[in-house]
Amino acid sequence: MAGNVGIVDLRMDLLSEYVGPFHYLTFYATRAALDAVAAHAEARPLRDLRHRPGIGFADPIVRHLLLSLQPLLGARTAEAVGLHVDHVSTALLHHLARTYGEMCTRPARVRGGLTPRQQRRAEELLNERLDGGITLAELAETCGLSIRHFARAFQQSTGVPPHRWLIERRLEKARDMLVGSRLSLQEIAAACGFADQSHFTRTFTRATGSSPGTFRRERGS
């Protein structure tokens, strides 16, 4: 059924029969990745993910997380392996571990946000890598924190998660370039770290209510 999810243990020998054309997206969750999720959550290592081989089922969280990647599929730049994909992968791994691996986490300890020095360094790195070619692990390591703690502390300090902060900086730079330069939309998209002009137009229009071309014309550039 359209939108269904299936979990497959690659240690098993499975046969599949396709009765018609369809599109699908494969997400590989390695044992090491699941163990890392459990370690960061201060939980016991997972055994296996509960599933019925070959049986599809509805999971709206998995579906919406994967659909959020759709605009990036086929992108030819680092955007396709950037911070947004990293966020989705991390969220998906945590969801799989909690829902199908029965991971029990300890109550989160209340902690503050980033220190001024940590926040400044994280923002510097994000600004240097507007193309999204940076991972949560790199940002967390720079701040001396676990991925889970860093993501929570960054949002507490800035009000938004790292990938949203990055998108806002891209849009801010794009607005300045639309008004202050005569570069083409394709050139601005590349300079601001968007996958391509189409991705730039969709993101800009969704955020501002105007397309980049309309925004530029209204400001006489």
From TrEMBL:
It comes from Labilithrix luteola. This is Transcriptional regulator, AraC family. It holds the Pfam family HTH_18. InterPro entries: AraC_XylS_family_regulators (IPR050204), Homeodomain-like_sf (IPR009057), HTH_AraC (IPR018060), HTH_AraC-typ_CS (IPR018062), Tscrpt_reg_AraC-type_HTH (IPR020449). Residues 120-218 form the HTH araC/xylS-type domain. The keyword Transport does not apply. Gene3D superfamilies: Homeodomain-like. PROSITE patterns: HTH_ARAC_FAMILY_1, HTH_ARAC_FAMILY_2. PANTHER family: HTH-TYPE TRANSCRIPTIONAL ACTIVATOR RHAS-RELATED, TRANSCRIPTIONAL REGULATORY PROTEIN.
